[in-house]
Amino acid sequence: MKTVETLNEGLKREYRLTITAKDIDARVDEEVKAVAPTVRMPGFRPGKVPPNLIRKMHGEALSADALNKAIDQGVKDLIAKEKLRPAIQPGVTLADDYERGKDAELTVALEVLPEIAAPSVDGLKLERLTVPADDAAVMAKIEEFAAQMKRFEEAPKTRKAATGDQVIIDFAGSVDGVAFDGGTGEDMAVEIGSGQLIPGFEDQLVGAKVGDEKTIKVTFPEDYPVENLKGQPAEFAITVKEVKVPAASKIDDEFAKSLGLESLDKLKELMKDQVEQELNGLTRTYMKRKLLDQLAAAHDFDVPPTMVEAEFAQIWQQLEHEASHEADPEAAKAELEKDRDEYHAIAVRRVRLGLLLSEIGQAHGVQVSNQEMQRLIMQAAQQYRPEDRQRFVEYVQQDALAAAQLRAPLYEDKVVDFLFEKAEISDRETTREELEAAIEADDDGHVHGPGCGHDHHDHDHKPAKKAAAKKPAAKKEAVKEEAKAEEAPAKKAPAKKAAAPKAEAEEKPAAAKKAPAKKPAAKKAAPAE
After folding, report:
1. What is the mean pLDDT of the chain?
2. 488 or 194, which is more confident?
3. What is the dihedral of CA 351, 357, 361, 362, to 10 degrees?
4. Cβ(438)–Cβ(451) under 8 Å?
């Protein structure tokens, strides 16, 4: 095989490989020997068909297989010979004028990982902000839990439904006057203001009372999971059967017993554990950001453009998705366009930090054990239907890239833990509000690592944007969800929490192209979506 380097520019490399016809023909001979025992032909005993007849019968297919194997081996040999570290799968192009029996000329194009000077892990200094899980925090968590479990009681028949009330309805939906699958139902309970239904549906129930019949007009979202309903205007004929109001919840021993616990004290004990986990998650999030800030400030190197573009595409897709749910989607997208360059810079940073963490982990022997990997696979498999789980497990076991993507978040966390052990850490007690505020202060640029598989990466400081200022409540929710993710990475945040474009895009691992993420179950076409 002949090799000629045709491009060496930054991290881009390109080579011209020539695989001789003789080499390809030798591989065809190997293919013939491999298939000979299975070839059947009238007049010959099994396995005794002459090689020249096998070539005549299956020559084209055998030549194609031989060429593919020669190309695969040629690329592997090139990488080994040139000591390349591909950042992406090399692109291989066979010359248009190739014919069987002739030499094969290939163009191999790739981007390589940068040479990163051995990252120093000395001199790291971090402040650990801690919050005690006091009685007030525990009771607040119990009250929050009680609110989620609220009961409703029947209201007077003359009551007009208000936000927060529950309405029991029958409904029949149609598009252009034609009923659609899943668009009809009876006795559906709708909590007005819960956001469970397609946009605009619940608002039109305000003021309704028992016995009312009305037509509700809505438009299905563009990202609705039922293809023929996406973006379609629809009408729902509804009948109001009951209006209910929230019942007061008293937090006492009886409430605890309704949850299967022996007493309120036992409930407080369990909730204290949960509060401590959340607070520990917030503390870790803050420390991790500050750690990655220090690493980013101390290292600067070129990153593979293709990885950056893949990372940027992921960030941009998420932001556009969030913008589509704004009151004025077009205005929100136009606002985004003004920040395109800044988000591209964030993608560069994410990739750089991911590569840096990977380099630190490799240099210091950080590993994910086989046992940990098996646990990750089984956790991820639970996202799928029972009948699909074994197929997912086999897919990850057979696909190295999928396995690497699944392993990446845990690997990154182990590298971060290693760096925490190396850092000089000072402790300071604070309040939850101050800790959340410290994290929020970084939210105008908090992002994560490279398109190579790392999770939960760093943050960039960007000018405060008007769009971000519109949603302080959503940002606080993102902070809370972020802490939960730190403690239980296998859990996904509720879809509704995706309301803050920046916090969401910035908190999602670039490289966390988590092995085939579970697709949401197809939602019903009913308004309950």
Report:
1. 81
2. 194
3. 40
4. no
CA–CA separation, 408 and 511 (whole Å): 8
Distance CA 285, CA 87 (A): 28
For 63, the token pair is 């030549």
Report the distance separating Cα 440 and Cα 434, nearest Å: 10
Q: What is the spatial distance between Cα 42 and Cα 45, in angstroms, rounded to a whole number? A: 8
Q: What does the pLDDT average to over 261-282?
A: 94
Per-residue pLDDT reduced to its tens digit, 347-386: 999 999 999 999 999 999 999 999 999 999 999 999 999 9
CA-CA distance, 465 to 442, in Å (whole number)? 13
pLDDT at 1: 79
Instruction: Assign 108 a pLDDT band (cuts: 50, 70, 90).
Output: very high
Residues 377/385, Cβ–Cβ less than 8 Å: no
Q: Contact at 8 Å (CB) between 447 and 505?
A: yes
* Beta strand pairing call for 233-246 and 166-175: antiparallel
Distance, in Å, from the CA atom of 352 to the CA atom of 345, rounded to the nearest integer, reads 11
SS3 461: coil
What backbone torsions phi and psi does residue 235 show, to the nearest 5 degrees? -125, 140
